[in-house]
Structures are given as C-alpha cells and as structure tokens.
Specification:
23 helices; 1% strand; 527 residues; two-stranded antiparallel sheet; mainly alpha; single chain
Length: 527
Amino acid sequence: MKKIAEWMKKSIFGIGIVFYSWILVLNLFLENITYFCKNKYVIANKLLMVFGIFLINIFIFLFKKYKRAIRKFLERGDELVPIFSVLLFLVELIISYEILFVSGWDAGEVSWQASLVAAGEKALDNSYFSHYPNNLLITFLYSLAYRLMGIVGLQMYGAVIIVIFQCFLSSLTGYLLYQISKKMFHSNKIAFLVWIIYGLWIGLIPWYMVTYSDPVGIIFPVIILWLYQSMDNKKAIWEKSVGIGIVSFFGYQIKPTVLIMYIAILLIVILRFIEKNECNIRIKQICGIVVAFFVVLNIYGHFDIAKCMGFQLDKEQKLTSTHFVMMGLSQKTNGVFDKDEVDFSISFPNKEMRQKANIKVIKQRLHEYGFLGMTKHLSKKILTNYNDGTFSWGKEGEFFLEEIEKPELIFSKVLKSLYYNNGEYRSMFINYMQFIWFMTLFGVFLNFILTFHKKKIADLQLITMLALVGIFLFVTIFEARARYLYIYVPLYILVGVQGYFQLFFSLRRKKKISILKIIVLGVRNTK
C-alpha cells in the first residue's frame, strides 16, 4: 500500500512538472502567437524573467548588506501584518471609489437581479438563472446587502456595501495567508514576504470591486487550507473536518472551482490513510469532510433558494458540464466564451437532448483536431489562461459598461489611466502584474522540480500543489478563463515562494550544483 501512496505522490509532481513546463515554454517562446483575450505587453516575458532574476540578486545583495535591519523588520510580521491588512483594506476602498463603474456581463446581471429581488420585483430573469443556477447563492447574498441599505432608504447604494464587504474579504484573505505561511515555513520572515507579494499583487488588481463570485470566492480555498492546517495540534479533529466540509460546500455554491480544493484535501487524507499514517485521525477527517458536505447538500437541496427570491426556474434548461467541455473545444474562440455555443446548447428543449448534442459535437471536434491540432488548441488555451497577470481584467464582455459620476479625489485620473482599457498608463499596470505572475509561475515550476525526489512531504505542500494541478486541468478542459485562476492566487503565491526558497537552500547546501541540473534533474532529499 505504501508503494501505491508513493506512486500517487510521484504522479502529482510528475504531472505538475509537465503542466507547468508547458506553461513556461509557451509564455517564454510562443507568447507572440495569436490567441483570444491577449494583452499587448510592452516587455516580453523573457525580459521579465531576466529582470526578475536581477531583482532577486539585488534583494540577496541588500539582505547580506543590511541583514540585521531587514531581519528585524521582517520578524515584526505579527505586529505589522494586522496593521498593513487594515491599510490594504483602505487602499482597496480608495481604488474602488476612484474608478467606480457599472460592469456588464454576468457581474452586472447578478447585481441587477439582486437589487430587483430586494425590491420585491416579480419581473426577474428566470432564463439566465435556469441556465446558470450556480449564481443563485451569490445573488441571494447580494440581495441581502440591497435589503440592508433599503432599511435606511438607500437601497440603490446596495452595491457600495457589497464592494466594502469584498474589500474586507480580500484583506482578510491576505491576513489568513500570512498565518498559514507562518506555520508552513516555520518563519515569520518568509510569511511576511508572502503577505507583501499578496498585497502588491492582489491588493492592486481591483477585482474586489466587481460584483461577482470571484472576489467573494477567493477566501474559501484559504479558509479550507487554514482549517486543515489547524489540525496539526490534533485537537478538535472532527469539528474542523466538519468545518472543511461545510465551508467547501458553500464555497462550491459561490464558485464551483472551490471544489478542486475540497477534492485535493480529501485525496491527500486518503493517501495518508493508505500510508497508514495516523489512521484513526485520517478516518475522522474523511468522515467529517465527506459527511458534512453531503449533509449540508441535502439540507440546502430542501431549501429552495430560487423560490425564496421569487425565481421560477426550469431545471431542464441548466447548462451542464458537457456544454462547457464543448465550448472549451471551440476553435473559433480558443475555448473562450462563445455566444453561438450557448445558443446551440439552449436550442435543445431538455437536458438529455442537450447533453447528447454536446457529446456529439465534442467527439466530432476531437476527431477533427487530431493529436497535433489538439496540442495547438490547448496551447492557445493555456496562453489565454496563464499569460495574463491581471486575470483578464477589462476583458469580460461589457466590462466598463458605465462610469459612475461622483466627486473625484486627487488619485482618480491616475487610477483610471491605469485600470481603464483606454487608460494612458494601462500598459504599466498589465506589465507590472505580468511580471509578478510570471515569476510566481517560475517559482511554482521550481517547487514541482525540487520536490519530486523528496521522501517526506508535508500535507499542506501536497494539498496546495495538487490543487494547482487540478485548476490547470479545469481551465484546460472546460471554458478558458484567466479569471478562474484568481481565487487560487494565494495558493500560487505559497507554492511559488516555497519553490524559490527550496532553490536557495539547495544552492547554499550544494554550492557546486548548477541551476540547470536542478531544473532538469531536481535535487534529491531537498528539505
């Protein structure tokens, strides 16, 4: 059984190496090919990588020169991170206010329907939610915000409460990430660096002001990971396992990709059970995680949230996974959203006919692509998903549908020039975000390489890396969307930072080993 467990671990890292090598090769050498949702970068990824390596060396030089001062600052993480998290919250509020706009696409639809529900309107968009029932819970939560503002006669400002709440979730996610990092790396200093990267990246991409599931969903993978990590003290195992099941379920209802995190934890717990590692604890974890999820699923199924809001849905109109696989194979849009694909699917009167039609098209497209054609298609999808450090900011439908008229503060013009599609400094924004994203991906790749030969691997590392393999599979198989990666950015930061520190410690211990050898062969028995 232990050999099976070892094979499973090797498979996770082997698959991860293949996937993230593919990403890096495409981003480095094929970024100039045409693909959907492509950003116009001023600086090529190859130059960003050279610049990144230069900056790392500058940091090492400064650290050696001012070692005591930098260490003293980073060691104050427990004191400074709560303060900085509050400051990050305020910065996010300022950015949101200064560039405030109404968005179209799903974000506008969900917010508008939530306001109608709060006002008690009967003319609701039953068709949209029949097709996409996964947006019901987020609409319900938003409707509560509109109702709250309605109590004081300001219902039209419900979106303001939503944005404030999402900014709070963003800063709270960063704080929890710091707490996870502190235990994971056994170091306040590294944890503080993780938080700084989060703040300078996620804190400056204003997804938190968009009224949709992504800025709410970002906290769920982190809470799930935090709950699992808190079991290290072997106390309240059952209660925390149940908590993981419950949080995972509601996260799934908000953002379906949260399920990847749930599956990753469940698989690693099962793997540890196979290894006969603390079997009694593992049985409690498996039971708590699985039972809680399905008990809440059963209760939630009896609570008709759609009817509660006044919707009358046709369950036969739901777009199932076969539709999204079919759309993911669309050559016309490289697997990105296509209205024609949606029109085709909804032209069938019931779920059974729709799924049969979807499967027929899937088989036809797979046959037409062949191996080389499929490789080319998936490569373009990977560039769409992984060559955008803004996670497709400004590229979703009618993203900037309407600018909100309001008194402007001193930063308004500068921020709009950064974040709006026609902004004078937008190229600075997208290149800055791309730099952080690309260097993070390189760190993730290093982590997979350097961990491949390790015999002892902590649960948290296995879970985070398996989750990153899972999200790659999701966005590669189904609809291509860089935005779908957004809620996993905290995990990318964790894995990426760990990759760089593994490389650093490997080089320090084995001074004669070349970086090329590390990248190609990995380093055995690296701690």
